[in-house]
Amino acid sequence: MNVPTDMEDTEAEQRQRVEEQVEILLGGQGWEVERYYVGLEQSKPAALRKTVTYIICAVILNDKEEVLMVQEAKPDCYKLWYLPAGRVEVGESLEEALRREVKEEAGFDCEPISLLLIQEQGPQWIRFVFLARVTGGAIKTPSAADQESLQASWWDRESILPLRGRDILRLIDCGLKYRRNPWHPVTLPLDLSCRHVIQRLVLVYTNTQQIWMLLVKAPVLHLPAAAAVKTHAVTWAANMVVQDAMPSAYYDHDVTTLGIFSLQHNGRQHGRTDGVCFNSLVALTPDYVQLNEDGEKMDATETGSAATCGESSVHLASSPERTSERETAGKDQEHVHLTHSQHVLMG
């Protein structure tokens, strides 16, 4: 007797498989990206230096809660101070890039503790912010100045220091808070390949009785996923899924990425595994602001343009406690009925 394939499994077996996959994501893990996802025809394969740029940034603290800073050598920010940061190179994993940048700019060997934050301006610019610890090496002194940096130093965050950008203050604060009281489990990139920048969704909708989850029915029952497009934030992929699933009700709802359970990246084969898969928790909630057919906000006298995409930040959402808080936030909401035959809400 032949072993049934996914296509031959009963709907009950497919639902069971989806439930197991959700448990995998809730545990901060993942699996290889399937080929069926929304937006593939609008998205180009990720290729470093061509279609995507990944930045790593390190928040490293000592026992005094001083933060490791490096003095820039680049002409446009010469002698200003910043966190160790730089571009991921071809063939590198995110963790390999982290270790290399810290070694080159600060002189220390390091290891990542956890991802803290992911910031993005679409697939062409994504910054991965790590909390890390020193494991060896020696701090870079002015005598070792080179094109990577002039020197490194520990900053107490109180003394005056000319900064390259104040954006790092939020990152430092995030690292301090996580070190004192972690709000999500340790989360590091999973070594799983992906060709595109993808958002895989656990997309939930709540009413007073149940939590509903959006699934795609074809070719087999599976969690929705969408490829990022260069004209929008990576998290816009969730909107593409909802618009495809429920076109008649899409403009009556907000689609909000609450956080990331995990992310998948390999990067060893240039142009083939440079993509990233963000395993995301997404909430669908009614939007009581009236929108026109183009998705633009309307009021009694005028039509306002929809918000344009700027830099967005995505937090980690691996904590079951954090998930449950968001899942119970939808009291008194009406149930939404999908009108697209290729999707289903599973309660």
From TrEMBL:
<dbReference type="InterPro" id="IPR020476">
    <property type="entry name" value="Nudix_hydrolase"/>
</dbReference>
<dbReference type="GO" id="GO:0046872">
    <property type="term" value="F:metal ion binding"/>
</dbReference>
<dbReference type="InterPro" id="IPR015797">
    <property type="entry name" value="NUDIX_hydrolase-like_dom_sf"/>
</dbReference>
<dbReference type="InterPro" id="IPR020084">
    <property type="entry name" value="NUDIX_hydrolase_CS"/>
</dbReference>
<dbReference type="InterPro" id="IPR000086">
    <property type="entry name" value="NUDIX_hydrolase_dom"/>
</dbReference>
<feature type="domain" description="Nudix hydrolase">
    <location>
        <begin position="47"/>
        <end position="176"/>
    </location>
</feature>
<dbReference type="Pfam" id="PF00293">
    <property type="entry name" value="NUDIX"/>
</dbReference>
<feature type="region of interest" description="Disordered">
    <location>
        <begin position="299"/>
        <end position="347"/>
    </location>
</feature>
<keyword id="KW-0464">Manganese</keyword>
<comment type="similarity">
    <text>Belongs to the Nudix hydrolase family.</text>
</comment>
<keyword id="KW-0378">Hydrolase</keyword>
<keyword id="KW-0460">Magnesium</keyword>
<protein>
    <recommendedName>
        <fullName>Nudix hydrolase domain-containing protein</fullName>
    </recommendedName>
</protein>
<dbReference type="GO" id="GO:0044716">
    <property type="term" value="F:8-oxo-GDP phosphatase activity"/>
</dbReference>
<dbReference type="GO" id="GO:0044715">
    <property type="term" value="F:8-oxo-dGDP phosphatase activity"/>
</dbReference>
<feature type="compositionally biased region" description="Basic and acidic residues">
    <location>
        <begin position="322"/>
        <end position="337"/>
    </location>
</feature>
<dbReference type="InterPro" id="IPR042970">
    <property type="entry name" value="NUDT18_NUDIX"/>
</dbReference>
<keyword id="KW-0479">Metal-binding</keyword>
